[in-house]
């Protein structure tokens, strides 16, 4: 088997620039290579090959990467920015000539130039979406689309420390769970209540004050659509510039009681308006040795 040809210095520099941007922004945005792969409709291995400089970046991946990280394509590849801009200019010129410049035409152009290696079913979905856009239709994005088995969806791990004791600190150890694939239907059968699967995220607890309910380094499923107090329960929130996962209980007159399940930590009264609620905890993955 012949050895894969190395990228030119210019193409390798694009991959390095993209990787540096990803590393610098992934924590703040809650991104992983797996979630990036899902958005780009490619495998996680393909993403790794782009970021590690094994394969050159292409326009399709560049557009998705730019959107998710909130950076212009020029930031990591002037070559691809020029190529993408060329498609836009061609569309504008066609409009000026009175010709039909449809989304379907643009997607076909892109696939003709950069479609090598893209699975046929992915190409078909891209073309179908463009055709629907040209007809003025809206293709509903279904975050519960069927997975490999059943109705599974990916749940992203938020790379942060949710403190169940004190303030969170950076961590440098492997998480028990990274992104996971779960069945929303099964979660609901278990009694887990949520509106949209896309709002579900994984976070890792830190500390002992919520034991035995939440032990040190337990992964938790949280609902990020809950951004205000919605009845007594366990919430992830920020208070006085620190992140916590604690029970919150309404005590009246704009006051909440911040409660630890470990009774060695006494309850603390806080103003409801001062608690910046980020999510509500729904489920804890407790690991038990047997």
Automatic annotation (TrEMBL):
<keyword id="KW-0805">Transcription regulation</keyword>
<dbReference type="InterPro" id="IPR036286">
    <property type="entry name" value="LexA/Signal_pep-like_sf"/>
</dbReference>
<dbReference type="InterPro" id="IPR039418">
    <property type="entry name" value="LexA-like"/>
</dbReference>
<dbReference type="Pfam" id="PF01381">
    <property type="entry name" value="HTH_3"/>
</dbReference>
<dbReference type="InterPro" id="IPR015927">
    <property type="entry name" value="Peptidase_S24_S26A/B/C"/>
</dbReference>
<keyword id="KW-0238">DNA-binding</keyword>
<dbReference type="InterPro" id="IPR001387">
    <property type="entry name" value="Cro/C1-type_HTH"/>
</dbReference>
<dbReference type="InterPro" id="IPR010982">
    <property type="entry name" value="Lambda_DNA-bd_dom_sf"/>
</dbReference>
<keyword id="KW-0804">Transcription</keyword>
<dbReference type="Pfam" id="PF00717">
    <property type="entry name" value="Peptidase_S24"/>
</dbReference>
<dbReference type="GO" id="GO:0003677">
    <property type="term" value="F:DNA binding"/>
</dbReference>
<protein>
    <submittedName>
        <fullName>Putative HTH-type transcriptional regulator</fullName>
    </submittedName>
</protein>
<feature type="domain" description="HTH cro/C1-type">
    <location>
        <begin position="27"/>
        <end position="76"/>
    </location>
</feature>
């Amino acid at each position: 088997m012949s050895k894969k040809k190395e990228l030119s210095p210019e193409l390798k520099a694009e991959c390095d620039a993209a990787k540096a941007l990803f590393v610098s922004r992934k924590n703040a945005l809650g991104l992983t290579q797996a979630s990036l792969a899902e958005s780009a409709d490619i495998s996680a291995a393909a993403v790794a090959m782009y970021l590690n400089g094994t394969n050159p970046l292409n326009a399709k991946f560049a557009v998705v990467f730019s959107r998710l990280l909130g950076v212009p394509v020029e930031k990591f590849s002037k070559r691809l920015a020029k190529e993408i801009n060329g498609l836009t200019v061609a569309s504008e010129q066609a409009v000026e000539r009175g010709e039909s410049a449809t989304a379907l035409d643009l997607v076909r152009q892109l696939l003709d130039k950069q479609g090598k290696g893209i699975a046929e079913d992915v190409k078909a979905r891209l073309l179908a979406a463009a055709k629907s856009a040209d007809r003025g239709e809206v293709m509903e994005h279904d975050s519960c689309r069927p997975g490999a088995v059943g109705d599974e969806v990916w749940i992203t791990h938020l790379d942060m420390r949710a403190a169940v004791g004190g303030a969170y600190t950076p961590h440098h150890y492997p998480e028990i769970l990274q992104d996971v694939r779960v069945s929303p239907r099964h979660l609901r059968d278990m009694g887990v209540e949520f509106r949209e699967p896309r709002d579900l995220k994984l976070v890792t607890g830190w500390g002992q004050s919520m034991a035995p309910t939440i032990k040190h380094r337990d992964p938790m499923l949280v609902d990020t659509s809950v951004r205000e107090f919605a009845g007594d329960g366990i919430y992830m929130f920020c208070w006085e510039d620190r992140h916590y996962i604690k029970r919150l209980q309404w005590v009246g007159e704009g006051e909440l009681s911040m409660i630890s399940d470990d009774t060695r930590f006494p309850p603390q009264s806080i103003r409801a308006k001062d608690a910046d609620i980020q999510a509500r905890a729904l489920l804890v993955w407790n690991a038990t040795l047997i």
